[in-house]
Amino acid sequence: MLKRILLCALVLGLMLSCAACGKTLLPEQTEESFETKPPKTEESTTEAPIEITLEPSEEDTTEESIQESTAPVYELLLPAEEQIAIFVANRELWYPVDDYYVPYSYTVCDLDQNGRLELLINICMGTGFFSENTAWEINESGDGIVSCGEIFETYESVVDLGYPEADAYYDAESGVYYYVAEDFIRNGWAFNATEMYALSLEDGQIQSQFLASCACETFEDGTQTITCTDASGADITEEEFNVIDETVFADLKPLTAKFLWKAEYMEDTDLLDADGWHRILEEAWQGFSLEEK
Questions:
Q1: What does the alpha-carbon distance between residue 144 and residue 139 come to, in Å, rounded to a whole number?
Q2: What tens digit of pLDDT does each residue of 194-243 get?
Q3: Per-residue pLDDT at 201
């Protein structure tokens, strides 16, 4: 009995001694027995930066690249409204004298693309479609107008102007622009013909190049003969006549020319003042263009 009391006292003493030293009688634990997670660092919580590459916008284009991509700019000698005012101020030079009781047609253009505008005037009359044409251009000093000559032909034919559209060709070597124009000829019910020309403005004068003709003659029995010839007088087919300009100017740059013709009767234009004429010619100029095909 005494031994049991002593044994209990010994165990109790040992327990008190361990408690005083801060130790317990639990199984020994090492650092490896605990699973710990490292603290979240800024690197582990922040997403990887997104790289954004900005393409250069049109506004960021350098002056050098703009110059390389821009075509030469067409420039007028003077603003169009000033050149038209010069035509109006000198209308006593170009205003028609004869009243045929059919309208005269007026248009403003720049046939040779030299920046000095031209005023073209056309009248077509009678059952034979007889035409008269005159042309004027702003002079080199920009303070007056000069005549470009009357557009007549030695083939007893006058080119019919007044059409809103024409095939055109540009010769880059000579700098000349050619405009295809036709003259329709009628002689009674039995005969009609079409002659084709190329008009150009060179050194301030209208030039006319004969390209080909095609005539149709009708007989009393209703039969017809069609004869087409080129500028040399050689026979060509009707199909060849219809594309003669493409053949002659095959090596040149093809264009389309557009005109706005203002048809006015003299009984009305006799009453026009300067402002009235300016409106007519300004509108005509706005309708002119040269476009690539």
A1: 6
A2: 999 999 999 999 999 999 999 999 999 999 999 999 999 999 999 999 99
A3: 96
Q: Please tell me the total number of residues recorded for the chain in this structure.
A: 293
One-character DSSP codes across 152-165: --TTS---B---SE
Identify the pLDDT of residue 169: 98
Could you give the number of structural domains in the chain? Answer: 1
Structure tokens at 252: 């040149």
> What is the rounded distance in angstroms from the CA atom of residue 24 to the CA atom of residue 20?
10
Q: Are 169 and 249 in contact (CB under 8 A)?
A: yes
What domain range is 146 assigned to?
Answer: 80-292
Which residues neighbour 237 within 8 Å (Cβ) at sequence distance 6 or greater? 228
> Could you give the C-alpha distances from 112 to 74, 83, 195, in angstroms and in order?
12, 16, 23
Quick check: 44 pLDDT over 60? Answer: no
Instruction: Flag whether 237 is in a domain.
Output: yes
Do 132 and 123 contact (CB within 8 A), yes or no? yes
Whole-number Å distance between alpha carbons of 108 and 98: 21
* Distance in angstroms (rounded) separating the CA atoms of residues 199 and 205: 10
Rounded to 5 degrees, what are φ and ψ at 33? -85, -10
| Residue 15 belongs to a domain | no
Contact 179, 111 (CB under 8 A): yes
CA dihedral 6, 12, 18, 19 (to 10 degrees): -160
| 87 and 81 Cβ atoms separated by less than 8 Å | no
Q: Which two tokens stand for residue 79?
A: 């603003």
Alpha-helical (H) ranges within 32-135 are: 42-45, 63-69, 80-89, 91-94
Q: Is residue 37 part of a domain?
A: no
Q: How far apart are alpha carbons 92 and 134 in whole angstroms?
A: 14
Q: How many CB atoms lie within 10 A of CB 201?
A: 24
Residue 276 lies in a domain: yes
Q: Is the pLDDT of residue 127 over 90?
A: no
